[in-house]
Design brief:
By secondary structure, this protein is mainly alpha-helical. 79% of the residues lie in helices and 0% in strands.
């Protein structure tokens, strides 16, 4: 069967991670001051992006193995 759930999950997390990291980069220092100087949006955006890319990589590897 050709349905691999890692592809839409990976795509979703990658897109949302890019959006959140972009917002963290352009949000300014005022947002970071509310969270003790840590840019939470940037860090969690990068975490989500890495997770999404890992899911896409695992799906790609599984598809390559099946062929």
């Amino acid at each position: 069967m050709g349905l691999d759930i890692r592809i839409p999950v990976g795509a979703l997390f990658s897109v949302l991670g890019l959006l959140l990291a972009g917002y963290g980069l352009h949000g300014g220092a005022a947002l970071a001051q509310r969270s003790l100087g840590i840019n939470i949006d940037l860090w969690w955006g990068m975490v989500m992006l890495v997770f999404g890319l890992a899911m896409l990589g695992l799906a790609w590897r599984a598809r390559a193995r099946r062929r």
